[in-house]
From TrEMBL:
Family from the record: Belongs to the UPF0309 family.
The protein, known as: UPF0309 protein PU648_30180
Organism: Streptomyces mirabilis
SUPFAM superfamilies: SIS domain
InterPro entries: RpiR-like_SIS, SIS_dom, SIS_dom_sf, SIS_GmhA/DiaA_subfam, UPF0309
Classification lineage: Bacteria, Bacillati, Actinomycetota, Actinomycetes, Kitasatosporales
Record-annotated SIS domain positions: 36-220
Amino acid sequence: MSDRKLAGQFFDAAIGLLRRVRDEDAGDIEAAGVLIADTVADGGRLFAFGAGHSSLAAQDVVYRAGGLALMNLLAVPGVVGVDVMPATLGSALERVDGLASAVLDSSPLRAGDVLVIISLSGRNALPVEMAMNARALGVKVIGVTSVAYASETKSRHVSGTYLKDHCDIVLDSKIAVGDAELTLETIEAPFAPASTVVTTALLQAVMATAAGALADRGIEPPLLRSGNVDGGHEWNGRVMTEYGDRIFYRR
């Protein structure tokens, strides 16, 4: 089989998943966007968290040209990204009970805020406890996960529950357990993960919905512009000054 044919198969698989989330998650995407718009309008703050490769989608909506300036990254040392050494430490930390409580206790999250939690499997202690404890604080939680894991894997949290069980809104990425879209007789393991493509698209659809919902209310969405276009820095400086008390990645 040619490499070109495999590439085409991956694109087809990713496009198929994107079509599914577009059609099947439309109501939840709308609800998530409206919740974010409500939070912005009511003076709340926005945060996103993901561990390991799930952090890529969280980072994609923070300090992003064309994105909402108010979206902040809730970072957990050793968990966000694969730059920690050894890389396997990040996976181990996701299973540590109590870590989420320590993170939230030292974070600026408060009642009335929104926290987007991204976890493909939704089965580890960290995202489950993060959602549980955030909601106990009065924070609204949007979970981005693959619901299939809840029926095909065992929870690693003492409660036996998953991220999806502790969210105000759940966005289902439709990713199959194992996150690999392709197989080949000559390759023993499945390959070509699509979760980052789909999860990132899901969240950008939510942000687009939120921007539109704010505009419909006569509120200018606090959007950032690219620093690589003329006037971008000046625009961003104005937005950051106006909303400085809700932007934490500058401190």
